Amino acid sequence: MNATIAVVAGDGIGPEVVEQAVRVLEVVAGKHGHSFAFTPALVGGCAIDRFGTALPDESLALCRAADAVLFGAVGGPKWDDPAAPVRPEQGLLGLRKGLDLFANLRPVTVLPALAGASTLKPEAIAGVDFIVVRELTGGLYFGPRGRREIDGYEAAYDTMIYSVPEIERVAHVAFRLARGRRRLVTSVDKANVLECSRLWRQVVSRVAGEYPDVTLEHQLVDSCAMALVRAPRHFDVILTENMFGDILTDEAAQLTGSIGMLPSASLGAGRRGLYEPIHGSAPAIAGKDVANPLAAILSAALLLRHSLGLEREAQEVEAAVGRVVAAGYRTADLAAPGDPAIGTRAIGALVAQEIERPPDEV
pTM of the entire structure? Predict the structure, then answer.
């Protein structure tokens, strides 16, 4: 297979973790006879410094022309003024919108070897394996916002807006995924308070009628937040809107022991997708070779699966990560106090070596 992959390393630890993901993809390509062309594109703070905008037209065009986008992270103290008219996050939001990527998939799997790294008891998280489908281009993050005077005081507003088609298309993604899993969709909203959530629940319930083989349950977002800690094994596919999904997946990341373990895929109607670890740019550890690249590497596995249709290769990458972790190798975020940790490049090299091993040695 020939494929072009846009590489958006971004800021902070983004370039470090993306470098290891690219290394793994190159090994996969060499092993299976594929040809992957990697095209760099500037987005985020680095783009602001060079072009004055977080998403230059050239970068968006490169991503639109690619078969998939591999993304690192954006942001850092240098650009951390909330009142600034141009911010790094605008680059990522604009890229999602510009590529019409409306469904964000965030798988949450607890590897047996990392059960002790979670803040929950190992018996509580054993066997946890679910996926969050987060609507990505609507809701509070994209609705009208501003400031105005109310009763003589400055006031601010953000508006959550969802249309029926926006809800329908992401709901279909969740139900199709559930058909290949345990056939349970948990739709998360705040229908006891928000009108948007009442429409969300109504539309999701109607879409569920097209999937009689899948069970649908509704849960309020605060109740879901508690259940993720109390009974995480219950969940199979969680479907929710933009802001709720953003918050719940950061909570879910802690089940795995570190936010450095969670990949994500942002998909639209076609095969092209954007793949990124859900962690941020972590500027405090940037350039120190201590960041965990496994979420970025697992995001590359999702790229192989969803955009390139290479399921066997995706499973190879995921299995290699599992074997490296099972062998006891840990980056600093996963290591127990006093235990040795290895660096970003070292653990990336170990994953690459595992992929290259002949099948009879695995």
Answer: 0.91
